[in-house]
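Fold this sequence, please.
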Amino acid sequence: MYEEIPRVELTPAAADLVRRLHAVHGPLMFHQSGGCCDGSAPMCYPEGEFRTGGSDVLLAELQVDGVAEPVTFWMARGQYEVWSHTRLIVDVVEGRGSGFSLEAPEGVRFLTRSRVVDA
């Protein structure tokens, strides 16, 4: 049976952080703009706080154990065109990222790793 490769996945460490952030902030979303500096990392916001539009692509509705609703993962269309041949793996690393992403006060930041997939 053919099983579709997920476009986006969370590492166990990222899923743990999502659960902690969800407990404090409620439903969550990710957006990755593809801009310079922090914009090239996935930013985590309360669901709906970052306004998406026609220039964004919904890549996934992530199911996270312990989180009732899916966590949406959006990417700027231009960035998606560059990364469309990859599987995105959201991980967590030590260090501060953007002050706008919910994990910033935790002393960690989300980071996207990628793996090339067959077309």
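DSSP finds two helices and seven strands in the chain. The two ends are 18 Å apart (CA to CA).
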